Structure formats: C-alpha cells, structure tokens
From TrEMBL:
This is Activator of Hsp90 ATPase homologue 1/2-like C-terminal domain-containing protein. Residues 37-156 form the Activator of Hsp90 ATPase homologue 1/2-like C-terminal domain. Coiled coil: none annotated. InterPro entries: ASHA1/2-like_C (IPR013538), START-like_dom_sf (IPR023393). Belongs to the AHA1 family. It comes from the Bacteria.
Length: 183
C-alpha cells in the first residue's frame, strides 16, 4: 500500500462535475474523466473486489447483469478503530465489459459508468441518480470527485491507506466542496 503522502492531491487537475435536478426527489450527478489506461484496466478497477478497495469501496458480488453488487465504504472516520460500516446492498442493472457498468444501490441510488476507448486511454462518464436533500448534493459531488481522483491514482498502482484517509484526504474533500459551492 502506498503512503497517502505519495498521492497527487491537486483537486484542480480534473474538471468539476455537474448536477441537475431530475424530479422533486432525485438529482443526477455527472463526471467525465480521461484516464491514461485502457478500458480493460479501468473496468478491472470498477469490478474486481481487490482493485475496488484501492480507490473506492469493498465490493461483494459480481459485475454481471442481475447479480448482487454490494458496497461497503472504507473512508469512515473510525475505521482505524475497528468500526465497520454497513454493507449497502446493490444489484447490477446492466454490465457489458469493458464498456458499461450500471448498478442500483440502497444508499447511492443508480450509478451508471460508461467507458469509451480514446487515443491514450479511456474516457469515463460517471452518472449517479440519487435521492438527496438539496444540502447534501454538493457534499456528494465533492465525495465522488475525490473518489474518481483516487481511481486515477489506483490506475498508477497506488492504493489508499484508508486508516489515514481523514487526515490525508479530508482537506482535498473540503477543497473540492468549496469549488462546487463557489460554482
């Protein structure tokens, strides 16, 4: 596991995502990122439970349409003290390796990730349609922004030290949150 000190913590290196109200209960969060890795490599980071822990969450399940796909967050403040979060149950709505993963999750609504090969890598489009109170939207935008930054680092072989996430990356989250709030 790489020391979190080795990570690029410049929140400005990727463009900000966008959000739009879908209806009276749901908001769609959208991010587009270019990664210097093949769609197969990015797909593995999205679906291989050993790789998802490097940047996102523990995964329980398989990336096959109709299969379970449960998530357990790792950047919980007290995880270093042995406190575990609950599993958020989910299901794969659609999976087409290595181009499309769409999941439905009890905590995060519907997440759709599309991968398109381009010269020099992959363009990832991340969409999350979720029921959130208005005051939580910008917090979620900042959270996904940081996790997608972590994905870039994971593609370079670095794994987050989750026990030190709050010390090392909460300031990054605060910076991203401030950027979204200023928009």
């Amino acid at each position: 596991m790489a020391s979190n000190a080795e990570f690029n913590k410049d929140m400005a290196r990727f463009p900000l995502g966008t959000w739009a109200v879908v209806d009276s209960e749901r908001t769609e969060l959208v991010f587009t990122r270019h990664y210097a890795a093949s769609p197969d490599a990015v797909w593995a980071m999205l679906t291989d439970p050993e790789k998802t822990q490097m940047w996102w969450a523990k995964v329980r399940g398989h990336a096959k349409t109709g299969s379970s796909f449960d998530l357990k967050w790792l950047n919980v403040k007290d995880v270093g003290q042995g406190i575990e979060t609950d599993w958020w149950n989910g299901r794969v709505v659609e999976a087409e390796a290595p181009a499309l993963l769409e999941i439905s999750n009890s905590m995060h609504g519907r997440i759709r990730i599309e991968l398109v090969p381009v010269p020099g890598g992959t363009v990832l489009t991340f969409r999350n349609v979720v029921a959130l109170p208005e005051e939580v939207v910008l917090m979620s935008m900042a959270g996904w922004h940081v996790h997608l930054d972590h994905l870039n680092e994971a593609l370079e072989g670095k794994s987050i030290d989750w026990q030190h996430w709050w010390d090392d990356f909460y300031p990054c989250w605060e910076s991203a949150h401030a950027s979204y709030a200023a928009r």
